[in-house]
Structure formats: C-alpha cells, structure tokens
Specification:
358 residues, alpha+beta, six-stranded antiparallel beta sheet, two-stranded antiparallel sheet
Length: 358
C-alpha cells in the first residue's frame, strides 16, 4: 500500500468535491469518514466508487448516510483493497445525489438538528391536525417522545432523511417539538403495508380548495425555474409546482427570462367570503416566507416580507391558491434578480418545493 493520504474537515471542503478530485486522478483507496461515533468507509477502484459501509449497512444507502454528517472529517488512504462491488452507478450521479441530500439536510437541520432527538406531538388528546398528508399523520401519531428521529425511520422503514423532512414540516407547523431526553410510552407501530404508499395530497386539497388540473409531464425542473445545472438527477418525494403548458426558457445562473410566459394559467377568482379558507392560505404564505428566510441572507428578508404582504392582499381579493403559488415563484425570481448565485437559488427552490410536495 502506498503512503498517499488526504485528510480534512467536511465543513471546510464538502466530501463530494474531495471524492471527485481524487476520482479524477484514477486513484484506488479508501475514504475513512467519521462524525462523532458514526463511521463510514468509501472505497474507490481506479477512480470509481465501488463500495461503502457504515455501522448500519453497506452499498448505496451506506454512501447516502454520509449526507447527514456535515461536521464530519475524512481521510483518504491510497492503495488497492479487495472489497465487493456493491455500487455500480457512475460517480457523477452518485456525487450529485450525495450533494443534493447534503443541501437538503443543511436546511432541515436548522429545525431538526440531530437524528438522535426525540420528536413529541404538541396536539391535545382528540385534537386533529390540519394540513398534513397521510405519511405525516402517521408519523405524528408515533411522535410520543419515546422514539428518536433515527428510530422512527427504522420503525417506519423509511429513509432517515425522508422522516427528518416530514418532521421539519411538522415542527414548522407547530405540531411537533424535539426533546433531548426519551420520554413517554412506546407507540404501537403498525406493520408496513405491501401496497404502494398513498399519493401525497395536492397542496390545493390541503388548503381546502378544489384541486387544480394536472399539467402534462415535462422534463425535470426545479420548484420555480429551470436551472443551468449538471445532468438531470432524480429528486425523490418532490412533486413541485404545477407547470405551464409552454417550457420555461433557460438562462445562465438559474435565472428566468423577462419575457417568460406565466407559469400558471389565469384562474377565476375564488369567492372572498370564506374566512376559514383565507386563514389557511395566509398561514401557508407564512410557512413559505419562513422557509425562504432560512435560506436567504438577512439582506433579502425585507424582499420576502414585501412579497408576502402582497400575497396576503391577493388572498383577501379572492385569488385563492394561485396567490400562494405566486408568492413562492416571486421569491425565487426575486432572489435571482437580487444577484443570488445559482447554488443558493437551487437550495431555495428545493426548500420551497418541499413545502408543496407534502
């Protein structure tokens, strides 16, 4: 074994960038990654990722587990090793997916800072939650303070990032708090059904409105605009906003052309005399604004506040769910117009899309 060693902190240099740098040199060896007590090994052969192993498993999912280790350290030791080839995907797609999950976790961790915390429902006995989909409702029923986030993922047989993402929404809605000490009683966990998971409830239904017509499927886009990014990658669990019938023109840096057609066809204004419906829409605009402020620098928060106020006026005027979607679109365009870089806009779009995919 040769003596080539590369080491550093994932805070200073993202792990996907370091792996890509090493792989371009066609090197063989092992990345030893660690955060606190958690450890992982990622093996390269002639520059290709061929195997990964953690305390919880091996292969692709073990590699993706490292996405939750933003404060970890790494050490690459060069030299060939005899390991099974459990990963066959090309490096480009693997590193793109790993980076995407890291971006998601950076946002989610602001409300769910650790998978070792214990979610506990804030609902009173008999109180029904509003604005949650079936998956979130099931998770809410298990949030008794007994299971940690990681244990809930194991109990529901869901990826821990998916569970953390759902908990992020429940925390933002005030339905769940996270505690550092186990409490409560162990909830009854129903065996997972063999049938496919029910489809997520469209945002229009969740806000109490009739559903909007579904558009024709299009090529992959971000929540708000098409970005000039690396080759397309799968984004599991995101449905995104309804798209226009015509494609959105691409611009450098993830922007939007000024003559772009409207994303949503004009809809008849809803009757402005339903206070319950208006309250639900207004509350959702607050969630959109809060999510945007988590991503955008303080200098852009005034822009978010101004757009939210305009959206509220539109809701009062009876524009219905179109005003909610319009707020998210306007915030994304505002970030582009304000000169935010493409990576920040991409992160903002992913965060806004997450709200509409639940």
């Amino acid at each position: 074994m040769s003596q080539g060693v590369i080491q550093g902190s994932m805070r200073e240099a993202p792990l996907p960038d370091i792996i890509q740098l090493v792989s371009q040199g066609g090197k063989s060896g092992c990345f030893h990654v660690q955060q606190d007590a958690a450890k992982a090994r990622i093996y390269l052969k002639d520059g290709r990722i061929v195997h990964a192993v953690t305390n919880h498993g091996e292969g692709f999912e073990a590699l993706m587990e490292v996405a939750l280790w933003l404060d970890g350290s790494y050490r690459f030791e060069e030299g060939g090793q005899d390991v099974p080839a459990t990963i066959t995907k090309p490096n480009a797609s693997l590193l793109m997916e790993l980076g995407r999950r890291m971006d998601e976790w950076r946002v989610i961790s602001q409300k769910v800072p650790s998978v070792d915390l214990y979610p506990q429902s804030t609902l009173l006995p008999g109180e029904e939650p509003h604005g949650v989909n079936p998956r979130e409702a099931r998770l809410l029923g298990l949030a008794t303070g007994y299971y940690s986030v990681a244990e809930l993922a194991e109990a529901t047989q869901k990826p821990v990032l998916t569970v953390a993402k759902d908990l992020y929404g429940l925390v933002m809605a005030g339905h769940v708090v996270l505690k550092g000490i186990r409490s409560g009683r162990p909830p009854q966990v129903a065996a997972p059904e063999a049938a496919p998971e029910p489809a997520l409830v469209p945002v229009a239904d969740r806000l109490g409105f009739a559903p909007l017509p579904n558009p024709e499927p299009q090529e992959e886009e971000t929540a708000i605009v098409r970005l000039q990014s690396p080759p397309p990658r799968p984004v599991a669990g995101f449905q995104g906003f309804p798209q226009a019938d015509e494609p959105i023109p691409e611009t450098v840096g993830g922007g939007v052309a000024t003559d772009a057609p409207p994303l949503v066809p004009p809809k008849p204004a809803a009757a402005p005399d339903d206070p319950v419906r208006m309250a639900k829409l207004t509350a959702f605009t607050q969630r959109i604004a809060q999510a945007a402020k988590l991503v955008l620098p303080d200098a852009h928060h005034e822009m978010v506040n101004r757009l939210q106020a305009k959206s509220t006026q539109q809701i009062i005027a009876g524009e219905g769910p179109e005003a909610v979607k319009g707020l998210a679109l306007s915030i994304s365009r505002g970030a582009v117009d304000a000169g935010c870089d493409a990576d920040l806009v991409r992160l903002l779009n992913a965060q806004l899309k997450a709200l509409f995919s639940k």
